[in-house]
Amino acid sequence: MALQIVTIPCLSDNYAYLIRDEDTDQVAVVDVPDATPILGALKDLNWSLDKILITHHHYDHIDGVEDLRTKTGAKVYGAKADAHRLPALDVELSEGDTFELGTEACDVLDVSGHTIGHIAFVFKNAEAAFSADSLMALGCGRLFEGDAEMMWGTMKKFIALTDDTLVYSGHEYTASNAAFALTIEPGNTDLQSRIEDIKHKRANDIPTVPASIGLEKATNPFMRANLKEVKALVNMADASNADVFGEIRRRKDNF
Ligand code: ZN
Ligand code: FE
Hints:
34% of the residues lie in helices and 24% in strands. α1 runs parallel beside α3, α4 packs across α9 and α5 packs antiparallel against α6. It is globular and about 55 Å long. The mean pLDDT is 98. Bound molecules: zinc ion (ZN) and fe (iii) ion.
């Protein structure tokens, strides 16, 4: 039992992902910013697409869905709560639902905050999570629809995954996220060494995603709002985790 995952850069800084179950040849894509590069990758790999998995309603994640559906006949999966503003769904999903990609089970998490109705796709056996604009490498999505309380709840769902789970997020924002993270925790040595790795990758045009939950827990300030040392650094020693998260998010919005 194994999944093969291929990262596909789309538009200026989006990522889509192809996922193939090696046992059954079933293939899914997570998000469709643009159908063209995804169709190109499917052709190069000689894979045929079965499922289109949508994380949330923003155009840079769904614009290519109808084109890709028409050209591949794949079934479209997305959040029931967002069905009114997503392309027509063949399968409506809610938190706690599970479906199969071949032999691999995929759990659906509600990861609202960036938008309400944002979902993530978690393959527990393969230790792979597709988070789009909820948890991002060294960051998290802006709170366009939800609030700090809601997004902190989402962070906790990611914290609960195994440290080895790899997180595949929706954008290449890591370099600017890193510069911000350093303003919160300048003395975090794990963060400092991660930043060296990010610089090397970007200089060589290598994606900085995926990154493991363990690494995010050690370096991503949004995943660390519950820690004493982080609360002290933002002068909120006695504040709630969600309030500290909210303060870090506000600082990032103004960064
Ligand atoms: Zn978005
Ligand atoms: Fe996005």
